[in-house]
Amino acid sequence: MTKAAACAASLLSLAAGTPALSGAAEGDIVEIEVLDGGLTPRGTYMGALRVKLQPGWKTYWRAPGDAGIPPSFSWRGARNVGALSITWPAPEVFLTSGYRTIGYHEQLVLPVEITPRTAGKPVRLKGRMQLGVCKDVCVPAELSFDHQLDSDAGGNPAIAAALASRPWSAKEAGVRHAACSLRPSEYGMKVTARISMPPAGGEEVAVIEPGAPNLYAGETTTRREGGLLVAETEFLPADGNAYAIDRSQLRITVLGQNHSVDIQGCSAG
Questions:
Q1: Are 159 and 193 members of one domain?
Q2: pLDDT tens digits, 154-189
Q3: Residues facing 50 on adjacent strands
Q4: How far apart are CA 67 and CA 63, in angstroms?
Q5: Secondary element (H or E) of residue 53
Q6: Cα 70–243–217 angle (5° rounding)?
Q7: CB burial of residue 108 (10 Å; 0-12, 13-18, 19+)
Q8: What's the domain range around 102?
Q9: pLDDT tens digits, residue range 236-268?
Q10: Are 64 and 77 in the same domain?
Q11: CA–CA separation, 168 vs 165, rounded Å?
Q12: Which contiguous run of DSSP H or E holds residue 164?
């Protein structure tokens, strides 16, 4: 078992053996609120989930790195929601006990854009967010939220800042080409991405997401070969069933000191 798989298993074991924390976690470690951002010119509602943590605590990005609990959401009870899109701000890279994890410290604002099922009717954003929070120890939390969005609300600076901190698109970052090669490994599939792009600044960390719920990625290594950024990881099956990898569904995020880059899909190579 890889280091990433072993650590993930231990955290999941912790999660299973620890009571879920609802609302604000024990000692008010973490709490959640819904922010209003009003209507967009497209007629969608803009809101956000703001997760506030006590000083020194952190939570995880959608791909948590070598170890951690990725956030998950349930929107049960939401009303007049036809489609929903989350924008993830660029995360930070942490090194904890020899493990590289990816996430946010003290606050996370997740912009949520909602297309109403019926235009002109109120939108109620209700559900639960499950996440892991860490300081000296890691604990799972389950936070409930319920808020009717205000269509008359003005622009919200916290939402605007979160949207502005999203990773750049491949075009914005000057990515010229991204190719991915696949080869079988002992336990899954090795993936090597070769990305032609200008440096993102400092030590670049790449994350490759499989785009399939029955696969998870192991530890990713990243290196520079001149104008190429080379990232390698291993996709492992979450169960014993057969699987296929669609390169067009792979998502590569490059985290740099100056900016981050979100690359959707790659070609064969």
A1: no
A2: 899 999 999 999 999 999 999 999 999 999 998 899
A3: 33, 109
A4: 9
A5: strand 45-53
A6: 30
A7: buried
A8: 3-7+19-164
A9: 998 877 788 999 999 999 999 999 999 999 999
A10: yes
A11: 9
A12: helix 157-164
Q: Which amino acid is at 112?
A: V
Q: Which residue has the tokens 């949520």?
A: 112
* Residue 247 belongs to domain with CATH number: 2.60.40
Closest CA to 54 of 95, 24, 22, 20: 24
Query: How many C-beta atoms lie closer than 10 Å to residue 179's C-beta?
Result: 15
Overall number of domains in the chain: 2
Place of tokens 């190429």: 228
218 in helix, strand or coil? Answer: coil
pTM metric for this prediction: 0.86
Q: CA 75, CA 79: separation in Å to the nearest integer?
A: 9
SS3 172: coil
The residues, ordered by sequence, that sit 6+ positions from 42 with a Cβ below 8 Å of its Cβ are none
* 103-138 pLDDT tens trace: 999 999 999 999 999 998 999 999 999 999 998 888
d(CA 61, CA 132): 10
